[in-house]
Specification:
The protein is an alpha+beta fold. It folds into two domains: 168 residues, Ribosomal Protein S5, domain 2 (2-Layer Sandwich); 117 residues, Alpha-Beta Plaits (2-Layer Sandwich), CATH 3.30.70. Helix 1 runs parallel beside helix 2. Helices cover 32% and strands 32% of the residues. Strand 10 and strand 11 form a beta hairpin. The protein contains ten helices and twelve strands.
């Protein structure tokens, strides 16, 4: 079995010298994601939804700093989030320690840059970064499949966040199949002032009698052949049909991104963030200066 593939996480390991001891410290970047296509195939016996989606990592990231300690402690900067068991990063550290039978701890500082409740997997990315970082810092030697099994117990997006890049994701998120990487397209993210509950969005989706399904197979073929035009043409998210009737802001953002030249626009995940694709990051930055939209958050990034 292979260990975690290199290059998925940006890791900086350094040694801190004090008067009485030497400690090892680690910095890990936790990358956001978007869904290029997202379809729901039905409800599983375990009451989760059966998904098929192609996910893409972005350069937008949180920063996780991990220091050796006697117990697990979490501090969060940049967002009003719980710092205990209610945080996926804390859950990841606690679960890894218990499953590995490790008796040490970690002082974890989480610097949030990914917007919250946005459909960008910020919490899952943080959990994945903690699993990966602590596996290295604690010297546990867990391989990728073991970490992904732990990740799936924390959140559906965690297994993908452990791998990153471009991937076909199936099941409830636990089946991750790496795909050929796409060029570093520029991405302009726009998030309304509100967040959305993933569970609520799926409940709304379940009430739709005849949802229109995106061309997930066509998207898969386009990604595998490196056909960027085909990727743009097949962007699709079945969950938009659940969110847009209640939140017209999502449609407004899509129209605004199209008006400033985005080659393709789509809501990511369960929303409400909408992304627009551009030839490169410079073009996305120029578009961010031109967009005329309400009091919404705007971020410029690129495929990672």
């Amino acid at each position: 079995m292979d260990t975690c593939p290199p290059g998925i996480f940006w890791i900086y390991l350094y040694i801190k010298y004090t008067k009485d001891m030497v400690t090892f410290n680690m910095i890990v970047k936790a990358y956001a994601k978007i869904n290029l296509v997202l379809d729901v195939l039905g409800t599983r016996p375990d009451r989760y939804h059966e998904l098929v989606t192609i996910m893409q990592t972005l350069d937008l990231h949180d920063v996780v700093e991990i220091n050796e300690a006697r117990k697990i402690e979490l501090n969060v900067e940049g967002a009003d989030l719980p710092a205990g068991p209610g945080n996926l990063a804390f859950q990841a550290a606690d679960l890894l320690r218990r499953r590995a039978g490790f008796d040490g701890g970690a002082d974890i500082k989480l610097v949030k840059r990914i917007p919250l409740a946005a459909g960008l997997a910020g919490g899952s990315a943080d959990a994945a970064a903690v699993l990966h970082g602590l596996n290295n810092l604690w010297g546990l030697g867990m391989v990728a499949s073991e970490l992904e099994t732990l990740g799936a117990a924390i959140g559906s997006d965690v297994p993908f966040c452990l791998r990153g890049g471009t991937a076909l994701v199936q099941g409830r998120g636990e089946k991750v199949h790496p795909l050929p990487g796409l060029p570093p397209l520029g991405v302009l993210l726009v998030k309304p002032f509100f967040g959305l509950s993933t569970a609520q969005v799926y409940r709304l989706y379940d009430d739709i009698v005849e949802p229109l399904h995106p061309d997930s197979q066509g998207m898969l073929r386009a990604v595998c052949s490196g056909d960027v035009g085909g990727v743009v043409a097949r962007l699709g998210n079945v969950l938009e049909q659940a969110t847009m009737p209640l939140h017209p802001e999502i449609r407004e953002i899509k129209e605004a991104l199209t008006a400033i030249g985005a080659s393709g626009v789509l809501m990511s995940g369960s929303g409400p963030t909408v992304f627009g694709l551009f030839e490169n990051k410079a073009a996305a930055l120029q578009a961010a200066c031109e967009i005329k939209i309400g009091n919404f958050g705007v971020w410029v990034t690129e495929f990672n």
